[in-house]
Amino acid sequence: MNNFRKGILDGLPIGLGYLAVSFSFGIMGTNAGLAIWQTVLISMLNVTSAGQFAGLNIMAAAGSYVEMIISQLVINSRYSLMSVSLSQSVDKSFTTKIRLLFGQFVTDEIYAVASSRGEEIGKRYFLGLCSLPYIGWSLGTLLGAVCGDILPGAISTALNVALYGMFIAIFIPPMKKALSVTVVVLISVAISIFLYFQPFFEISSGISVIICAVVSSVIGAIFFPIKDEEPGTKDGDFPTNDEEPGTKDKSLLGEMKEVHHGE
Amino acid sequence: MGNEFFIYLAVMALSTYLVRTIPFVAFSRKIKSRFIRSLLTYVPYAVLSAMTVPAIFFSTDSLISATAGFVTALILSLCNRSLITVAFFSCLSVFIVGLFV
Predict the structure, then answer these.
(1) What's the domain range around B92?
(2) What residues of chain A lie within 8 A of the CB of B53, using their CB?
(3) In chain A, which residues have their Cβ closer than 8 Å to the Cβ of B30?
(4) How much is the ipTM here?
(5) Which of A154, A259, B93, B99 has minimal Cβ neighbours within 10 Å of its Cβ?
(6) Is B76 within the bounds of a domain?
(7) Dihedral angle sign, alpha carbons of residues A188, B84, B75, A114
Protein backbone atom coordinates (compact mmCIF):
# COMPACT_ATOMS: atom_id res chain seq x y z
CA MET A 1 0.00 0.00 0.00
CA ASN A 2 1.67 3.18 -1.17
CA ASN A 3 -1.13 5.46 -2.33
CA PHE A 4 -1.11 9.07 -1.10
CA ARG A 5 -4.82 9.58 -1.80
CA LYS A 6 -5.82 6.49 0.11
CA GLY A 7 -3.74 7.75 3.01
CA ILE A 8 -5.52 11.11 2.95
CA LEU A 9 -8.92 9.39 3.03
CA ASP A 10 -7.90 7.17 5.94
CA GLY A 11 -6.56 10.20 7.79
CA LEU A 12 -9.69 12.33 7.38
CA PRO A 13 -11.65 11.00 10.38
CA ILE A 14 -8.55 11.21 12.56
CA GLY A 15 -8.01 14.81 11.47
CA LEU A 16 -11.57 15.78 12.33
CA GLY A 17 -11.27 14.16 15.74
CA TYR A 18 -7.99 15.95 16.41
CA LEU A 19 -9.54 19.26 15.42
CA ALA A 20 -11.99 18.92 18.29
CA VAL A 21 -9.59 17.49 20.84
CA SER A 22 -6.75 19.94 20.20
CA PHE A 23 -9.25 22.78 20.51
CA SER A 24 -9.40 22.07 24.22
CA PHE A 25 -5.60 21.96 24.36
CA GLY A 26 -5.57 25.43 22.79
CA ILE A 27 -7.91 26.69 25.50
CA MET A 28 -5.80 25.10 28.23
CA GLY A 29 -2.64 26.62 26.78
CA THR A 30 -3.89 30.19 26.92
CA ASN A 31 -5.53 29.54 30.29
CA ALA A 32 -2.11 28.44 31.55
CA GLY A 33 -0.74 31.85 30.54
CA LEU A 34 0.91 30.97 27.23
CA ALA A 35 0.66 33.14 24.12
CA ILE A 36 -1.37 31.83 21.20
CA TRP A 37 1.71 31.18 19.06
CA GLN A 38 3.40 29.37 21.94
CA THR A 39 0.45 27.03 22.37
CA VAL A 40 0.29 26.30 18.64
CA LEU A 41 4.04 25.72 18.51
CA ILE A 42 3.75 23.09 21.25
CA SER A 43 1.15 21.23 19.19
CA MET A 44 3.11 21.51 15.94
CA LEU A 45 6.34 20.21 17.45
CA ASN A 46 4.96 17.51 19.75
CA VAL A 47 1.82 16.04 18.18
CA THR A 48 0.84 14.15 21.31
CA SER A 49 -2.26 14.44 23.45
CA ALA A 50 -1.40 13.14 26.89
CA GLY A 51 2.24 14.23 26.61
CA GLN A 52 1.44 17.84 25.73
CA PHE A 53 -1.17 17.99 28.39
CA ALA A 54 1.26 16.85 31.08
CA GLY A 55 4.00 19.06 29.63
CA LEU A 56 1.75 22.09 29.80
CA ASN A 57 1.02 21.39 33.46
CA ILE A 58 4.72 21.20 34.20
CA MET A 59 5.37 24.48 32.35
CA ALA A 60 2.52 26.18 34.17
CA ALA A 61 3.77 24.93 37.53
CA ALA A 62 7.36 25.89 36.58
CA GLY A 63 8.47 22.33 37.18
CA SER A 64 12.02 21.14 36.59
CA TYR A 65 13.42 20.14 33.20
CA VAL A 66 14.20 16.70 34.58
CA GLU A 67 10.55 16.31 35.53
CA MET A 68 9.64 17.37 31.99
CA ILE A 69 11.97 14.80 30.43
CA ILE A 70 10.86 11.96 32.69
CA SER A 71 7.17 12.71 32.25
CA GLN A 72 7.50 12.86 28.46
CA LEU A 73 9.55 9.67 28.34
CA VAL A 74 7.11 7.76 30.54
CA ILE A 75 3.88 9.11 29.11
CA ASN A 76 5.11 8.73 25.55
CA SER A 77 6.81 5.41 26.11
CA ARG A 78 3.85 3.79 24.41
CA TYR A 79 5.01 5.40 21.18
CA SER A 80 8.25 3.44 21.41
CA LEU A 81 6.24 0.27 21.39
CA MET A 82 4.16 1.50 18.45
CA SER A 83 7.28 2.58 16.57
CA VAL A 84 8.82 -0.84 17.12
CA SER A 85 5.63 -2.48 15.93
CA LEU A 86 5.29 -0.13 12.97
CA SER A 87 8.92 -0.61 11.99
CA GLN A 88 8.00 -4.20 11.20
CA SER A 89 5.12 -3.33 8.90
CA VAL A 90 6.61 -0.64 6.65
CA ASP A 91 8.13 -1.36 3.27
CA LYS A 92 11.58 -0.59 1.86
CA SER A 93 10.68 3.00 0.99
CA PHE A 94 11.13 3.72 4.71
CA THR A 95 14.83 4.51 4.67
CA THR A 96 16.55 5.81 7.79
CA LYS A 97 16.08 9.37 6.54
CA ILE A 98 12.35 8.82 6.02
CA ARG A 99 12.03 7.23 9.45
CA LEU A 100 13.76 10.20 11.08
CA LEU A 101 11.37 12.48 9.21
CA PHE A 102 8.13 10.58 9.85
CA GLY A 103 8.82 9.27 13.35
CA GLN A 104 7.17 12.20 15.07
CA PHE A 105 3.83 11.43 13.40
CA VAL A 106 3.37 8.11 15.18
CA THR A 107 0.28 8.85 17.28
CA ASP A 108 -2.14 6.38 18.84
CA GLU A 109 -4.67 6.79 16.05
CA ILE A 110 -2.25 7.00 13.12
CA TYR A 111 -0.49 3.92 14.44
CA ALA A 112 -3.79 2.11 14.89
CA VAL A 113 -4.87 2.79 11.31
CA ALA A 114 -1.47 2.15 9.74
CA SER A 115 -0.91 -1.14 11.52
CA SER A 116 -4.45 -2.41 11.00
CA ARG A 117 -4.10 -2.40 7.22
CA GLY A 118 -2.63 -5.87 7.38
CA GLU A 119 -0.11 -5.15 4.63
CA GLU A 120 3.20 -3.35 4.28
CA ILE A 121 2.76 0.39 3.96
CA GLY A 122 4.86 2.78 1.92
CA LYS A 123 5.99 6.34 2.56
CA ARG A 124 3.44 7.95 0.22
CA TYR A 125 0.52 6.28 1.99
CA PHE A 126 1.96 7.18 5.39
CA LEU A 127 2.52 10.81 4.39
CA GLY A 128 -1.10 10.99 3.22
CA LEU A 129 -2.30 9.37 6.41
CA CYS A 130 -0.42 11.88 8.60
CA SER A 131 -1.35 15.05 6.70
CA LEU A 132 -4.90 15.76 7.83
CA PRO A 133 -4.35 14.67 11.45
CA TYR A 134 -1.33 17.02 11.65
CA ILE A 135 -3.26 19.91 10.12
CA GLY A 136 -6.26 19.15 12.32
CA TRP A 137 -4.12 19.03 15.44
CA SER A 138 -2.35 22.33 14.70
CA LEU A 139 -5.42 24.17 13.42
CA GLY A 140 -7.59 22.97 16.30
CA THR A 141 -5.03 24.25 18.79
CA LEU A 142 -4.96 27.63 17.04
CA LEU A 143 -8.76 27.88 17.04
CA GLY A 144 -8.93 26.88 20.69
CA ALA A 145 -6.25 29.37 21.68
CA VAL A 146 -7.87 32.20 19.68
CA CYS A 147 -11.55 31.47 20.31
CA GLY A 148 -11.21 30.05 23.80
CA ASP A 149 -11.76 33.49 25.28
CA ILE A 150 -14.67 34.58 23.16
CA LEU A 151 -16.51 31.30 23.58
CA PRO A 152 -19.22 31.28 26.21
CA GLY A 153 -17.86 29.84 29.45
CA ALA A 154 -20.25 26.89 29.34
CA ILE A 155 -18.85 25.73 26.00
CA SER A 156 -15.16 26.09 26.81
CA THR A 157 -15.77 24.33 30.12
CA ALA A 158 -17.48 21.49 28.31
CA LEU A 159 -14.56 21.18 25.90
CA ASN A 160 -12.21 20.66 28.84
CA VAL A 161 -13.36 17.07 29.05
CA ALA A 162 -12.73 16.31 25.35
CA LEU A 163 -9.20 15.03 25.98
CA TYR A 164 -10.33 12.94 28.91
CA GLY A 165 -13.19 11.57 26.83
CA MET A 166 -10.69 10.50 24.19
CA PHE A 167 -8.47 8.87 26.82
CA ILE A 168 -11.46 6.95 28.19
CA ALA A 169 -12.33 5.78 24.69
CA ILE A 170 -8.79 4.41 24.36
CA PHE A 171 -8.48 2.53 27.65
CA ILE A 172 -12.03 1.20 28.21
CA PRO A 173 -12.49 -1.08 25.15
CA PRO A 174 -9.38 -3.21 25.86
CA MET A 175 -10.57 -3.57 29.48
CA LYS A 176 -13.61 -5.39 28.15
CA LYS A 177 -11.44 -7.79 26.21
CA ALA A 178 -8.75 -8.51 28.77
CA LEU A 179 -8.93 -8.90 32.52
CA SER A 180 -5.23 -8.03 32.64
CA VAL A 181 -5.86 -4.52 31.31
CA THR A 182 -8.76 -4.12 33.73
CA VAL A 183 -6.51 -5.01 36.67
CA VAL A 184 -3.71 -2.70 35.50
CA VAL A 185 -6.12 0.21 34.97
CA LEU A 186 -7.83 -0.28 38.33
CA ILE A 187 -4.49 -0.38 40.16
CA SER A 188 -3.30 2.69 38.27
CA VAL A 189 -6.48 4.61 39.03
CA ALA A 190 -6.40 3.59 42.70
CA ILE A 191 -2.83 4.87 43.07
CA SER A 192 -3.72 8.03 41.15
CA ILE A 193 -6.67 8.77 43.46
CA PHE A 194 -4.54 8.08 46.51
CA LEU A 195 -1.73 10.37 45.35
CA TYR A 196 -4.22 13.11 44.49
CA PHE A 197 -5.91 13.19 47.87
CA GLN A 198 -3.15 12.12 50.27
CA PRO A 199 -2.12 14.92 52.64
CA PHE A 200 1.44 13.74 53.36
CA PHE A 201 3.50 15.25 50.57
CA GLU A 202 3.18 17.49 47.52
CA ILE A 203 3.42 15.70 44.22
CA SER A 204 3.17 17.04 40.68
CA SER A 205 0.77 15.47 38.22
CA GLY A 206 3.68 14.45 35.97
CA ILE A 207 5.43 12.44 38.69
CA SER A 208 2.12 11.01 39.86
CA VAL A 209 1.40 9.62 36.40
CA ILE A 210 4.86 8.08 36.27
CA ILE A 211 4.41 6.32 39.63
CA CYS A 212 0.93 5.04 38.69
CA ALA A 213 2.05 3.78 35.28
CA VAL A 214 5.25 2.08 36.39
CA VAL A 215 3.77 0.33 39.44
CA SER A 216 0.63 -0.92 37.71
CA SER A 217 2.41 -1.94 34.49
CA VAL A 218 5.08 -3.86 36.39
CA ILE A 219 2.35 -5.70 38.30
CA GLY A 220 0.62 -6.38 34.98
CA ALA A 221 3.82 -7.64 33.38
CA ILE A 222 4.53 -9.94 36.33
CA PHE A 223 1.07 -11.48 36.67
CA PHE A 224 -0.17 -11.24 33.10
CA PRO A 225 2.78 -11.61 30.71
CA ILE A 226 1.64 -11.22 27.11
CA LYS A 227 1.56 -14.15 24.75
CA ASP A 228 4.72 -14.88 22.82
CA GLU A 229 3.76 -13.28 19.55
CA GLU A 230 4.48 -10.07 17.70
CA PRO A 231 5.29 -7.09 19.88
CA GLY A 232 2.56 -4.52 19.77
CA THR A 233 -0.67 -3.48 21.36
CA LYS A 234 -2.91 -5.68 19.31
CA ASP A 235 -5.78 -7.33 21.13
CA GLY A 236 -4.33 -10.77 20.57
CA ASP A 237 -1.40 -9.99 22.84
CA PHE A 238 -3.32 -9.77 26.06
CA PRO A 239 -4.07 -12.82 28.09
CA THR A 240 -7.74 -12.49 27.16
CA ASN A 241 -10.62 -12.98 29.49
CA ASP A 242 -13.05 -15.43 27.98
CA GLU A 243 -14.96 -16.05 31.19
CA GLU A 244 -18.40 -14.63 31.71
CA PRO A 245 -18.59 -11.25 33.43
CA GLY A 246 -19.99 -12.75 36.64
CA THR A 247 -17.03 -15.02 37.22
CA LYS A 248 -14.23 -12.50 37.31
CA ASP A 249 -12.53 -13.80 40.43
CA LYS A 250 -12.51 -17.31 39.11
CA SER A 251 -11.05 -16.23 35.80
CA LEU A 252 -8.33 -14.28 37.57
CA LEU A 253 -7.29 -17.43 39.40
CA GLY A 254 -7.58 -19.46 36.22
CA GLU A 255 -5.46 -16.98 34.35
CA MET A 256 -2.75 -16.92 36.99
CA LYS A 257 -2.69 -20.71 36.99
CA GLU A 258 -2.38 -20.68 33.25
CA VAL A 259 0.52 -18.28 33.49
CA HIS A 260 2.15 -20.53 36.06
CA HIS A 261 1.87 -23.53 33.79
CA GLY A 262 3.17 -21.54 30.89
CA GLU A 263 6.45 -20.68 32.58
CA MET B 1 7.63 33.12 30.03
CA GLY B 2 10.47 34.07 27.69
CA ASN B 3 13.54 31.93 27.21
CA GLU B 4 12.25 29.40 29.69
CA PHE B 5 9.42 28.58 27.31
CA PHE B 6 11.83 27.66 24.55
CA ILE B 7 13.89 25.46 26.85
CA TYR B 8 10.75 23.70 28.08
CA LEU B 9 9.53 23.32 24.50
CA ALA B 10 12.87 22.01 23.24
CA VAL B 11 13.17 19.54 26.11
CA MET B 12 9.60 18.39 25.60
CA ALA B 13 9.68 18.09 21.80
CA LEU B 14 13.10 16.45 21.72
CA SER B 15 12.18 13.83 24.35
CA THR B 16 9.00 13.06 22.45
CA TYR B 17 10.81 12.89 19.13
CA LEU B 18 13.52 10.58 20.41
CA VAL B 19 11.04 8.27 22.14
CA ARG B 20 9.24 7.81 18.84
CA THR B 21 12.07 7.88 16.35
CA ILE B 22 14.88 5.90 17.98
CA PRO B 23 12.86 2.66 18.11
CA PHE B 24 11.50 3.34 14.63
CA VAL B 25 15.02 3.57 13.24
CA ALA B 26 16.72 1.01 15.46
CA PHE B 27 14.26 -1.83 15.60
CA SER B 28 14.07 -4.03 12.62
CA ARG B 29 14.08 -7.09 14.88
CA LYS B 30 11.62 -8.08 17.58
CA ILE B 31 12.14 -7.31 21.24
CA LYS B 32 13.01 -10.58 22.95
CA SER B 33 12.27 -9.86 26.60
CA ARG B 34 8.75 -10.98 27.34
CA PHE B 35 8.72 -8.91 30.51
CA ILE B 36 9.61 -5.65 28.74
CA ARG B 37 7.09 -6.33 26.01
CA SER B 38 4.41 -7.03 28.60
CA LEU B 39 5.32 -3.87 30.49
CA LEU B 40 5.16 -1.74 27.33
CA THR B 41 1.81 -3.24 26.42
CA TYR B 42 0.22 -2.09 29.66
CA VAL B 43 1.89 1.33 29.97
CA PRO B 44 -0.48 3.29 27.67
CA TYR B 45 -3.61 2.15 29.49
CA ALA B 46 -2.05 2.77 32.89
CA VAL B 47 -0.94 6.25 31.82
CA LEU B 48 -4.23 7.30 30.26
CA SER B 49 -6.37 6.04 33.13
CA ALA B 50 -4.14 7.66 35.76
CA MET B 51 -4.31 10.96 33.88
CA THR B 52 -8.09 10.77 33.61
CA VAL B 53 -9.03 9.78 37.13
CA PRO B 54 -9.46 11.74 39.32
CA ALA B 55 -8.49 14.79 37.19
CA ILE B 56 -11.59 14.66 34.97
CA PHE B 57 -13.83 15.28 37.98
CA PHE B 58 -12.17 18.63 38.60
CA SER B 59 -11.91 19.72 34.97
CA THR B 60 -15.22 21.58 34.78
CA ASP B 61 -17.05 24.14 36.91
CA SER B 62 -18.89 21.56 38.97
CA LEU B 63 -18.38 18.02 40.13
CA ILE B 64 -21.85 17.13 38.85
CA SER B 65 -21.30 18.17 35.24
CA ALA B 66 -17.86 16.55 35.24
CA THR B 67 -19.39 13.32 36.51
CA ALA B 68 -21.98 13.50 33.73
CA GLY B 69 -19.17 13.81 31.19
CA PHE B 70 -17.28 10.91 32.77
CA VAL B 71 -20.30 8.60 32.86
CA THR B 72 -21.23 9.46 29.27
CA ALA B 73 -17.71 8.70 28.09
CA LEU B 74 -17.70 5.47 30.08
CA ILE B 75 -20.97 4.19 28.63
CA LEU B 76 -20.11 5.11 25.03
CA SER B 77 -16.67 3.54 25.36
CA LEU B 78 -18.22 0.36 26.68
CA CYS B 79 -20.30 0.39 23.49
CA ASN B 80 -17.04 0.68 21.50
CA ARG B 81 -17.84 4.09 20.03
CA SER B 82 -15.07 5.95 18.22
CA LEU B 83 -12.80 8.47 19.93
CA ILE B 84 -14.57 11.35 18.20
CA THR B 85 -18.03 10.18 19.25
CA VAL B 86 -17.01 9.61 22.85
CA ALA B 87 -15.22 12.95 23.14
CA PHE B 88 -18.10 14.84 21.51
CA PHE B 89 -20.94 13.41 23.59
CA SER B 90 -18.88 13.67 26.75
CA CYS B 91 -18.52 17.41 26.10
CA LEU B 92 -22.18 17.69 25.16
CA SER B 93 -23.36 16.15 28.41
CA VAL B 94 -21.08 18.43 30.43
CA PHE B 95 -22.55 21.38 28.54
CA ILE B 96 -26.17 20.30 29.02
CA VAL B 97 -25.79 19.43 32.70
CA GLY B 98 -23.81 22.64 33.17
CA LEU B 99 -26.85 24.65 32.07
CA PHE B 100 -28.85 23.36 35.02
CA VAL B 101 -26.23 23.24 37.74
Answers:
(1) 31-100
(2) 189, 192-193
(3) 88, 230-231
(4) 0.86
(5) B99
(6) yes
(7) negative
